[in-house]
Amino acid sequence: MDFALIAQTTAEAASDPSQLFSDLAPPLQVAVLLGALSFATAMLVSVTAFTRIIIVLSFVRRALSTQEIPPNQVMMGLSLFLTLFVMAPTFEKIHDNAVIPLLEAQEAAGPEEEPTFGFVDAWKIASEELKVFMLKNTRTNDLGLFFELSETPPPSQRMDTPLKIAVPAFIISELKTAFIMGFCIYIPFLLIDLVISTILMALGMMMMPPVVVSTPCKLLLFVLVDGWQLISKALVASFA
Question: Where are the membrane-spanning stretches (predicted)?
Answer without folding.
Answer: 37-60, 72-91, 178-207
